[in-house]
Amino acid sequence: MGLLGSLVKLLVVGVSGLVSVMLIRTFTFPSKQPNVGKCSPEDADFIKLTDEMITHFQDAIKIKSISWTIEQMSLPEILEFHKHLEKSFPLIHSSKLVKKEVINTYSLLYTVQASDMSLKPYMLAGHMDVVPVDQQDWDVPPFEGQIVDGFLYGRGTIDNKNTVMGIMEALEFRLKNGILPVRPLYIAFGHDEEVLGMQGAGEIKKVLESRNVQVEFLLDEGTTVVQGVFGGIKTPIALISVAEKGAATVNISVDAVPSGHSSMPGKETNIGVLAKALSRIEENPFPSMFGRGPERSLLEAIATEASFPLKFVLTNLWFFSPVASWMMSLKPSSNALVRTTTAVTMVNGGTKMNVLPPSAWGVVNHRIHPAQSIEEVIEYDHQLIGDDRVKIDRLGLGDILPSPISPHGDDVFGYQVIARSVNQVFPSAIVAPGLMIGNTDTKMYWNLTKQIYRFCPTFMLPSDLPRFHGINERMSLENYQQTINVYYHVMVNADSKDLSHKHSHSEDL
């Protein structure tokens, strides 16, 4: 056998060995799912949805607590929402265990005392305001709280009055049954999350920081339980976001080319220079950050439920990371998880059809991966454009730093409390860490804890995704019952001093 034959033989043996190792890993890859007991309607501590609870939710939806801009908010309606909470949850508002504070006139902070005040408290958060609606596009009026075919329709049903009402129903249930919390709890409801949250959560943060409050973990609104969104995965996936992308908006402008009559143009115009700059930005996306955020952990969490050959890839990311990164880059929804994204959102230039434009500008919105900074993103824009005639200026308004990535391992108390609670109520779902591509009030609370998580117990199919901030927003009554029970189980599981105790549904109420 010649040298070439020996090399070929060695190559075949090497490849065969590599494939064998990968196959063994594929079929022995451990599940990342928590081992917990299923929550059942037969359990003594299962919260069954009552007509009264439904009415509470309907009446919350009827309140038009809309935030249009920072300067324009439905503040009287926010105060009406306060009264609705007081009326709907009398035990919370009369219990000696609960202290209610109104922060900055419109936001709410509840402090729930516990039997063991030495334990570090945790915090649940939500917001009372909603985004505007274009009512003519809705099949069901957005502020009437109508139920059609088992779904409650209305603005706020999935963002975010479901969270607010679900948390309160769970706490009211505990108080009604005489359950004394073991671990202290803060509940924070902002009134302006939809317009950056500076007057709501921003002021709540100041109050808590002035008291040197530190919490074990924080759970706010965020990603949901989705099904049919990930190709090759039929099982529902509950995404608990452990980080949040940042945002930066830049103005790209050109005024270097002299104006004049269009009958005597030069080689370029300001609009032409701008167009080339914007094209370079669009045609050269930011590099993939795969493996530097939670995306790898997400794929490994869903790996055991994937079909072959996807399962082969996901259980061997040590080898296939470039392939996984490429796969995630194919769709806008998954591409946003692995890199900083760029969107040209506004363009303006020219004053008259026969006059060379004296200037031109465009607005670019970046959503920034947690592995990058705003400064790195701006520098990347400069390098891509490579033209000194093009000015890049940060607009500043709405700029948000990417969040730190919260821990999400098997030994992380906050993450596991939430994961176990979700798995108890959604036993068929895969629980996985995710990345929030939008922004929430959590950006205000970074100093309170390193364990910040973003999750809503909202079940969504691909057809439901446009309902978020869109038309015909709705939640099924079954899903609202699940929502209440998830928050109840978070309260129960958080009462454990550590992760050794697992709520088994055998406890007496």
Automatic annotation (TrEMBL):
Entry superkingdom: Eukaryota
InterPro entries associated with the record: Bact_exopeptidase_dim_dom, Pept_M20A, Peptidase_M20, Peptidase_M20_dimer
Catalytic activity: an N-acyl-L-amino acid + H2O = an L-alpha-amino acid + a carboxylate; (9Z)-octadecenoate + glycine = N-(9Z-octadecenoyl)glycine + H2O; N-(4Z,7Z,10Z,13Z,16Z,19Z-docosahexaenoyl)-L-phenylalanine + H2O = (4Z,7Z,10Z,13Z,16Z,19Z)-docosahexaenoate + L-phenylalanine; L-phenylalanine + (9Z)-octadecenoate = N-(9Z-octadecenoyl)-L-phenylalanine + H2O
This protein's record includes keyword Iron: no
UniProt record, GO biological process: adaptive thermogenesis; amide biosynthetic process; amide catabolic process; amino acid metabolic process; lipid metabolic process; proteolysis
Family: Belongs to the peptidase M20A family.
Protein name (database record): N-fatty-acyl-amino acid synthase/hydrolase PM20D1.2
